């Protein structure tokens, strides 16, 4: 890895550890270099991957970022939280996306690409309601797709809610999803917003990993992509996402209590 890329890794690690925002990289780098930076950053932070997120899962989002396919980010075990949950507010901007979460039920064979949607469907052991909390760790949000990927595709936390099914069910290709933030109008969406079917998103990820000599493994969770677009959040929020009346997920974001005082 070149010196410039190592410098980006160091700055992103510090940002993820709460040491302030990272300066947006000036020198351009390729998408392959961006994924290498992402991988090195996650390795430096420690802990094995518990799953992945898939981003840019609409043609509009891809067009806006000048690309023609989704992007991926890694989620560590500590990045998963069980609904309902309360988390502390932060000084940087967060945003929320309601997402169908897919649980992988068995290891994928090494070098298995190309994989079909049916190959993916039979290896899914669960579907869950989810809210992804995303954030940029740069001091400037005017980024290229490579810069976005280097910043782990803006992955931060994944809130896991109700189990919706014990395997893939085709009805989840298009179910209504509503995201509620207290005091605001609901954001209405559908799982069909994710590449027309979230199963396609997971299939893309599995094949993308296979081409890189990697694979999905049993127990990993995949945030398949936003069913409700991006919702900017205030520093304090009460958020709930409902998945067609089949289940929900919720998170409260609030200021941390002062030490020595009751909440």
Sum this structure up briefly:
This protein is of the alpha+beta class and 263 residues long. 23% of the residues lie in helices and 32% in strands.
Q: What's the structural blueprint in terms of helices and strands?
A:
Layout: H1 3-16, H2 31-45, E1 49-55, H3 59-64, E2 71-76, E3 80-82, E4 85-88, E5 95-104, H4 117-121, E6 124-134, H5 145-150, E7 155-165, E8 176-181, E9 187-190, H6 198-211, E10 221-226, E11 231-232, E12 237-243, E13 248-254
Parallel strand pairs: 1-10, 3-7, 4-13
Antiparallel strand pairs: 1-2, 5-6, 5-10, 5-11, 6-7, 8-9, 8-12, 12-13
Helix pairs in contact: 1-2
Can you walk through the features of this model?
This protein has a single domain (about 45-255), classed as Fumarylacetoacetase-like, C-terminal domain (Fumarylacetoacetate hydrolase, domain 2, Alpha-Beta Complex). The mean pLDDT is about 95. About 25% of the residues lie in helices and about 30% in strands. α1 (about 5-15) packs across α2. The chain is built from 6 helices and 13 strands. The protein has helices at about 5-15, 30-45, 60-65, 115-120, 145-150, 200-210, and strands at about 50-55, 70-75, 80, 85-90, 95-105, 125-135, 155-165, 175-180, 185-190, 220-225, 230, 235-245, 250-255. The chain has about 260 residues and is an alpha+beta fold. The strands form 2 sheets. Strands 1, 2, 3, 5, 6, 7, 10 and 11 form an 8-stranded mixed beta sheet that branches. A 5-stranded mixed beta sheet has the order 4-13-12-8-9, with no helix packed on it.
